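User: I'm writing a tutorial on reading structure tokens. Could you give me a worked example: one chain, its sequence, then its tokens, then a sentence or two explaining what the tokens reveal?
Assistant: Sure. Here is the example chain.
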Amino acid sequence: MQIEIGASYGVGAKMGVIEHANKVSGEGQTEIKHQEGQVILLDFWATWCPPCQKPMGHNQEMLDKRGSDWGDKVRLIGLSIDNDVPTVKTHVQNKGWNSVEHYHVRNGQCTADKDYGVQGVPHVLLVDTTGTIVFIGHPANRPDLEGDIDKLLKGEKITGAGTTATGGEAEGESNAKEMDPATVEAAHSKFQTDLAEFMKK
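And here are its predicted structure tokens:
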């Protein structure tokens, strides 16, 4: 018997570090992590996905319009699930989407798409200035992303679809809590021990 357990970051959780992401502009791999005071948009997408094209184009438009105002306080990051980097690089260059930070994550090492619960694209997350995930879902659920980003930069909350943790709590509230790595490791070890005991029966 095999048991597979999966978990992903949700609204109210802190953004983790995305490791082993392939650089699209440049060579090699890098890690993507939040820095205090930044607002980050993570946009999982693919070149072969028709519904992904308009949101990614809008990301570029927002940076064309507001990039100088936002500076390094806002990062719009495209995370491609394509099969290879050259495909993404060619597509991005042809579209002129060069202001967005682009990375390739479906490379056999990076687990970002699993970590952030990507089951289809486009799949977007917004991260506030404290590193907390405040929205997860389809970009169409945020008709004013530019306004959302401005609010988050001011430390204000955003509400609406995709901004609450699952579990039935009131809009704008979250029952998610951050767990330190030691607590997670202890829970994992206890689970493994309990499972081993169970399997003996």
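What the tokens reveal: Helices lie at 50-70, 85-95, 112-115, 145-153, 181-200. The longest strand covers residues 39-45.
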